[in-house]
Write a structure and sequence with these properties.
Elements: H1 20-30, E1 34-35, H2 47-58, H3 71-85, E2 95-99, H4 100-112, E3 118-123, H5 127-135, E4 139-144, E5 146-147, E6 153-154, H6 157-163, E7 168-174, H7 186-198, E8 202-206, E9 234-239, H8 241-244, E10 251-255, H9 258-271, H10 277-288, H11 290-314, E11 318-320, E12 327-331, H12 333-339, H13 344-354, E13 357-358, E14 375-379, H14 384-400
Parallel strand pairs: 1-13, 3-4, 3-7, 7-8, 8-9
Antiparallel strand pairs: 2-10, 5-6, 9-10, 11-12, 12-14
Helix pairs in contact: 2-10, 3-10, 4-5, 4-9, 11-14
The structure holds glutamine.
Length: 402
């Protein structure tokens, strides 16, 4: 009657510890802090979407949905992508509905990669990417995004070329990018497309922030799938959560060629099998009325972004203006030094304990944590009142530096 002697956590997961989102949200509650750490809105999305889910529950849409997703939802996703990208999509074979984009990422890597395959990741990366590559027995190759003189993050072409090899099975591209707010440019995506074709690799694109754009004129969102030669070697992932402010519903999807989606479905059927039925019914309604949902949301976030950029500067930090997403990255090191702090973890610990504001230390998003040590990530996907209160707290934090 003794407990097992070996660790409860499998070796390939042990290095990743507890996800930073759980850790920081717990600290935010503990210290009664404003939570600008985990990225989620502090308000509900449009009410008609919620009512559609209630109606679906009332009308007995409560048993398992079909494994690949409700046909009506797959159709709505296919039509939306056709409109956006100009590519034809067969909803019967080329779409699968997943439990949020996070499951889509996992099902895609597990579904199309073999152990030992290499997967190219840009760092900083959304934390599940690296863990899921490890869970699949694959090898991650990292390419750094670094801030440039124009305040945007970019990668070095030689570094990207060097990360690809004939063992590369896939590259994961998140655009608009969490946590930097970077929107990949046409030139950057063209280079990625060229390398995928040269090395016979698949592109997996995480486009969950595709509608949250702040410079659509100069930095529009582009679908890598629509680049020359990429239609049949790109799996496009997205979700409902960010566009409609229902991050807790966990409705995501993958779109790609029938061959690649067969791989994604092969994994999805054994990971979650199917996604919450009433929420899929509501998702159809949401997508039908997407136009009327997005404009107000983007203008709220654009205002918040401007307010926060100023507040970060006033607090003695150097923010990097995002072209999309929920997030701003800022260099905190000048302020940190005045507070006697050395890195992002120390800064975030101090900010939550002493100033009542929870932020994310981005070093956890790097394979080389030192690349993130001077940075901090802040989420501005909040009500105006929350942003005003956060501005006060950032000012109070700066005053502690004397
Ligand atoms: N995508 C959200 C973020 O980056 C968090 C998701 C999560 O908590 N796992 O903040």
């Amino acid at each position: 009657m003794s407990a097992p002697k070996r660790s409860g956590i499998a070796e390939h997961l042990a290095p990743f510890g507890t996800t930073i989102f759980a850790t920081m949200s717990r600290l935010a509650v503990e210290h009664n802090a404003i939570n600008l750490a985990q990225g989620f809105p502090d308000f509900d999305g449009p009410a008609f979407i919620k009512f559609a889910a209630m109606e679906a529950m009332e009308t007995q849409h409560n048993q398992y949905a079909p494994m690949p997703g409700l046909p009506g939802l797959r159709g709505a996703i296919a039509r939306r992508f056709e409109r956006d990208s100009g590519l034809a999509v067969n909803p019967d074979t080329q779409v699968v509905v997943t439990s949020g984009c996070t499951e889509a990422i996992a099902a895609t890597i597990m579904g199309i990669c073999n152990p030992g395959d290499e997967v190219v990741l840009f760092e900083p990366f959304y934390d599940s990417y690296r863990a899921v590559v490890a869970m699949s027995g694959c090898v991650a190759k990292f390419v750094a995004l670094r801030p440039q003189s124009d305040g945007r993050f970019a990668f070095d072409e030689a570094e990207l070329r060097g990360a690809f090899s004939d063992r590369t099975r896939a590259v994961l591209v998140n655009t608009p990018h969490n946590p930097t707010g970077k929107v990949f440019t046409r030139e950057e995506l063209s280079l990625i497309a060229t390398l995928c074709q040269k090395h016979d690799a698949v592109a997996i694109t995480d486009e969950v922030y595709e509608r949250l754009l702040f410079s659509p004129g100069t930095h529009p969102h582009l679908h890598l799938a629509s680049f020359d030669g990429m239609r049949d070697r790109t799996i496009t992932l997205s979700s409902l959560g960010k566009t409609f402010s229902y991050t807790g519903w966990k409705i995501g999807w993958a779109i790609g060629s029938a061959e690649l989606i067969a791989g994604v479905r092969a994994a999805h059927q054994f990971l979650t099998f199917a996604v919450a039925t009433p929420l899929q019914h509501a998702a159809v309604r949401a997508l039908e009325r997407e136009q009327e949902c997005v404009a107000d949301l983007v203008s709220l976030f654009a205002e918040n972004r401007a307010v926060m950029m100023d507040a970060l500067r006033n607090a003695g930090m150097t923010p990097y203006a995002p072209d999309g997403t929920y997030f701003i990255m800022a260099d905190h090191i000048a302020l940190s030094r005045r507070l006697g702090l050395n890195d992002d973890r120390a800064f975030c610990q101090f900010a939550v304990e002493r100033a009542g504001i929870a932020l994310i230390p981005p070093s956890v998003f790097f394979s080389r944590p030192e690349l993130g040590a001077n940075l901090v990530r802040l989420a501005f996907c909040k009500r105006r009142e929350t942003i005003s209160a956060a501005v006060e707290r950032l000012a109070a934090l700066a005053r502690l530096a004397g």
